[in-house]
Amino acid sequence: MAEVELKNVIKSFMGGKITALQDINLKIPNGMFTSILGPSGCGKTTLLRLVAGLEKPDAGEVLIRDSVVNDVSPRERNIAMVFQNYALYPHKRVFENMAIGLRLRGYPEHDIKKKVVGVARMLKIEDFMERYPKQLSGGQQQRVALGRALVREPEVFLLDEPLSNLDAQVREVTRTELKRLFKDLQATVIYVTHDQTEAMMMSDFVVVMNHGTVKQTGEPISIYNDPDHRFVAEFLGTHRINLLHGRIEQAKFISDDGFIVFDTKIKTQGNVLAGIRPEHILLSTHKEIPLKGISVLIETIGSTHLVSVRVGENEFKILTAETPNLQKQIMASFSLHDVYFFDDQSGRRLRPDFF
Predict the structure, then answer these.
(1) Which terminal residue of the chain has fewer beta carbons within 10 Å of its beta carbon, N or C?
(2) What distance in Å separates the CA atoms of residue 354 and residue 339, rounded to the nearest whole number?
(3) Are strands 33-37 and 205-210 parallel, antiparallel or unpaired?
């Protein structure tokens, strides 16, 4: 397996009118499952195509195993790519779909058969070798596309939202299988997705992107617990973070409507956003910062409830196992330690002195 690195990479389209990537500096760890996470149009697929060699950077360098590959063809990069639409040959049976890459590289027939059968057994598709793609389910087609990549034993696997065409149940099962498979292989994987749940569950390392820039990198739980930017805090999380507009005056937070005031230990003065995740607000007064409001909506999610509480001119989402009554007064609280502060203009994180 191999480390992948991008140094000062810039990529634009339409004669420079659209900038897809802006000065990207990024290291993809060797032998780890890395997700490139971000909304549509953030540049994540362009980044993947640069690593694959399907696009060339306007500036900067792409390195695989410490070697610059800007002018190396996709075929010579020893990478394998799995696309969103699987890209299977409809007129070829499963065996031939998996074997075609090896045939083009001149592998002996007995080696091709050995590799294809071995990978098919690992992916549990050995019974489908004589079928055509149209005779397979979406999940089975996805495994064939993955198998075609695996038989080549590449240094780097590139996956571009390969699960997005699957229904929810098949997607969940396949997600677990992929994580287990690549963990056993100790493969270097770059996985593009807009689904933060997918990235958090599958990845060893996450790259969060927006507007052609890298906002933050690191282990999933580290990024979730310690976001560097408002965008990262908003994008990660099964339930959207609560953001409260206000200002800091003499280390005290004051919401725009004046209903919520508390000490912050932040020296920065001016307009800020205070972020509190729904799971960090308790329906009790046990924490040091109180909230008193009216429940306006209750959404049941399995054994938990997402409660919308109106506090002054603001609305908070609270995740709880308790079932409060609708349109009733709610007493809640949260800890200062669980509050993130962001600059209102730049979105960058403002850190209290005790962090």
Answers:
(1) C
(2) 12
(3) parallel
For the cut 60, the answer to whether the pLDDT of residue 355 exceeds it is no
Q: What values do phi and psi take at 159, rounded to 5?
A: -125, 120
In whole angstroms, how far apart are CA 258 and each of 254, 265, 277, 330?
A: 6, 19, 21, 19
| Contact of 155 with 92, CB cutoff 8 Å | no
pLDDT, residue 75, reads 86
Is residue 307 within 8 Å of residue 260, measured between CB atoms? no
β-bridge mates for residue 19, sequence order: 12
Residues 348 and 102: their CA atoms lie apart, in Å, by: 48
Domains present along the chain, CATH in parentheses: 4-235 (3.40.50.300), 242-350 (2.40.50.100)
Q: Which residues contact 276 (CB under 8 A, 6 or more apart)?
A: 241, 242, 244, 316, 334, 338, 339, 340
Q: Give the integer Cα–Cα distance in Å for 145 and 147.
A: 5
Say how many residues make up the chain.
Answer: 355
